[in-house]
Amino acid sequence: MLTTILEDPLYLQFAFAGCIALAILTLPLKDIISIGFYDISDLFVTAMIAFFITYGVLVTNHAAVSIWLFVGIFFAIMVVIMLMNILVILPFKSRAENSNITSIHELEGKEAKVSIPITLNGTGEVIVSTGFSRVNKMAKIYENTDGITDIPKNENVLVMDVSDNILYVLPYTNSIKTIGKPKPTWNEKQRK
Description:
Layout: H1 2-7, H2 9-25, H3 40-61, H4 67-95, E1 111-116, E2 118-119, E3 124-130, E4 133-141, E5 150-151, E6 156-163, E7 166-171, H5 175-179, H6 188-191
Parallel strand pairs: 4-7
Antiparallel strand pairs: 1-3, 1-6, 2-5, 3-4, 6-7
Helix pairs in contact: 2-3, 3-4
């Protein structure tokens, strides 16, 4: 069957399109069917590239392509994709903390709002606004020297420290926001 596909340019085009479709359809299975540096989608991408190169060889040389040439191209591309995964993708993937651009350590010193109450020995959750997005992170009370026993929901807090992906926070009141809109005093006589 593979020799029939390799000898006809139309079948090679169908095989190329089928590999594209299978590579896209198997994207959700990448983490399930994987060897760590080579997964099911990479298999179909490898086949797609091999069919594309085989099609190019068939069209330019106007000669029949042997199955051994296709297998050689397939394994050469497989090795290139494995090396790219090992040397490029996996190192960057291991350094990534989460999907947003902000590093968790950049949250230190930011103002946040409590979404799940934080108890003295327990863990709660805070929402930190970072640029255009909001990040939910686990939080604990920072070194309790003020006798704080809990921080209720919707309380403003300040991120004091970040350790082990947990934010350590203290209650915080932003004095600029609490001032509000001052009353004008220069024109009080004319208001009467």
